[in-house]
Specification:
This protein has five helices and no strands. It is an all-alpha fold and about 130 residues long. This is Membrane protein.
């Protein structure tokens, strides 16, 4: 629990982060920030997709598929946003300490989840089309 508290504290107290190590070339910090903002945009897009699925997608042939997809997209978007700020803080700390940048499997996991979601949607659309004919 203490580790989680320390990680979250770093998100809201960047002064603590600035006291670690040496001030890096500003271009590295700005590149890290741009990556963070790109992840936030990804999270917002997933959240918007979840809301769009919930509001505009017609009922699917499988009970509660629409709602399940909407909830999955909303949760995934929130997870991406939280993961983004954690990765930003860990990367900034590594840059300031001259350490290797933290490795992350999250982009691969996210890509697999989005791909799996797309496959499930294709199956649902094909099932619905087959039922109409």
């Amino acid at each position: 629990m203490a580790i989680v508290y320390q990680a979250i504290r770093r998100w809201f107290h960047p002064r603590e982060l600035r006291e670690v190590g040496e001030t890096p070339d500003y271009r590295f910090s700005l590149a890290n920030e741009r990556t963070f903002l790109a992840w936030l945009r990804t999270g917002l897009a997933l959240i918007a997709g979840g809301l769009a699925v919930a509001q505009f997608l017609p009922p699917m042939p499988i009970s509660y598929l629409r709602e399940g997809l909407a909830v999955a997209l909303l949760l995934l978007g929130g997870t991406v946003a939280i993961r983004a700020v954690d990765h930003w803080a860990r990367t900034e700390r590594a840059i300031r300490l001259g350490q290797e940048l933290p490795a992350s499997r999250f982009p691969a996991v996210l890509a697999l989840l989005v791909g799996l979601g797309a496959v499930l949607l294709v199956v649902a659309v094909l099932v619905q089309a087959a039922r109409k004919t």
